[in-house]
Design a protein that fits this description.
The chain is of the alpha+beta class. It has five helices and eleven strands.
Length: 209
């Protein structure tokens, strides 16, 4: 079994614990603001931290380019890579030379990686105590197997459409949970064409036979 199960079993994003109460704008206004941000966020780089159930931290670097392209480059703590190439997400485990691939639309991350998706049909604003923090839960009621993602944004002047993505919690159809916290976000930065390529460890293993 791939360690992907471990990656999806992370504890809830810590900042969600401080998020439930009252939003000052209407939910429709908040949905529109988040949609505008996702459309305006053409590229982003950031550091990320993933936390597992035991509290272990897995740091790494994230690179995103809309639409559909994302790269999670884990640090030395985990010899793993997750890449979205616009059509599918691929998880590469270099320790065991295994690869798993699945359509982006079947992943909770589809809400983040498809800026043209109509959030008004799939998104639900989660009220927060802080009027400068927006939280949206996205799910397709007709496709529960696609899972759920709850994204958290902070209102920041100068960020795309005035919002900064601070992290998310995703839940797949098997109730496996992934939590990501972002820091040092940079928007509109140049991203190399080969940023979403990866080497297949299975080819190297076959070559040794």
């Amino acid at each position: 079994m791939l360690r992907f199960a471990f990656l999806l079993a992370a504890a809830p994003l810590a900042l969600t614990a401080s998020i439930p109460a009252t939003a000052q704008q209407s939910p429709a206004d908040d949905i529109n603001a988040i949609s505008a941000h996702l459309r305006a966020m053409t590229t982003m780089t950031a550091s990320f931290t993933q936390t597992d159930r035991s509290g272990q931290l897995l740091p790494g670097k994230l690179t995103l380019k809309q639409p559909g392209r994302i790269r999670f480059q884990y640090g030395k703590e985990a010899n793993l890579l997750i890449v979205g190439d616009g059509k599918a997400l691929t998880m590469i485990d270099y320790d065991v030379n295994q690869v798993q691939r699945w359509p982006i639309r079947n992943s909770p991350l589809g809400a983040l990686l498809n800026p043209e998706r109509d959030l008004s049909k799939y998104g639900k604003i989660i009220p927060t105590r802080n009027p400068d923090v927006l939280s949206v839960e996205v799910r397709d009621p007709k496709r529960p197997e696609y899972g759920v993602i709850t994204m958290v944004f902070t209102k920041i002047a100068g960020a795309p459409a005035g919002l900064r993505l601070d992290g998310w919690v995703s839940l797949d159809s098997k109730n496996n949970r992934t939590s990501i916290r972002l820091s040092d976000q940079k928007f509109g930065v140049p991203v190399a064409k080969n940023a979403f390529k990866w080497s297949d460890p299975r080819r190297k293993r076959r070559g040794r036979r």
